[in-house]
Amino acid sequence: MFNMGFGEMTADDVVYTFNAADPAVTKEARHDTLPNASIASVQAVDKYTFRINWKAYSGATLFELTDFNEGVGIFPKRAQDEKGSEWMRTNFTGTGPFEMTEWTAQKGMYLKARTEHWRKVPYIERFTLLDIPESATRRAMLESGQAAIG
């Protein structure tokens, strides 16, 4: 299930994500992993099955769909349809064990654990990633116990 109540992930969400990241399909597309030059298109076969149509087969593409590499985050088409592109740029909506409650550039990212998750419920309730550019401040936060990792 997607965070923020956007329902279950389906093949349509996979197709939407690949198309949204492909400048040949979506003019304003900007993505650090996609598009993949070896893929001609992605299509839904049924609710839970999608097909990758290749220009030329590349085994590296399969790593993009696993935990062996950076991976490709799949986003809910329903969020795009209901909220629009601008909302999606600042509201990450995935299927992971944490839900983002806030993200502010040059401040931080704030996550809370999902109490029900298909794979594993986190053993910590909240996770905060702060943007602290000054190394002396990061060190002071570590030494004072204000941060666990720096």
Task: Characterise this structure.
- There is one protein chain.
- The strands form two sheets. The chain has a three-stranded antiparallel beta sheet with strand order 3-4-5, with no helix packed on it. Strands 1-2 form a two-stranded antiparallel sheet.
- It is of the alpha+beta class and 150 residues long.
- A hairpin with a 3-residue loop joins strand 3 and strand 4.
- The chain has helices at residues 11-20, 59-64, 77-83, 85-90, 135-144; strands at residues 39-46, 49-54, 98-104, 108-113, 126-130.
- 26% of the residues lie in helices and 21% in strands.
Question: In short, what is this structure?
Answer:
This protein is α+β, with helices and mostly antiparallel strands and 150 residues long. The chain is built from five helices and five strands.
The number of helices is: 5
- Strands of the widest sheet, in order across it, are 3-4-5
- Uncertain stretches: none
Helical proportion? Answer: 25-40%
Q: Which shape, going by the Cα principal axes? A: globular
Number of strands: 5
Q: What percentage of the residues does DSSP assign to strands (E)? A: 15-25%
SSE-based structural type: alpha+beta
List the helices and strands in order. HEEHHHEEEH
What's the N-to-C terminus distance? 32 Å
Main sheet attributes: strand count, strand direction, barrel closure? 3 strands, antiparallel
Cα radius of gyration in angstroms: 18 Å
The whole-number mean of residue pLDDT values reads 87
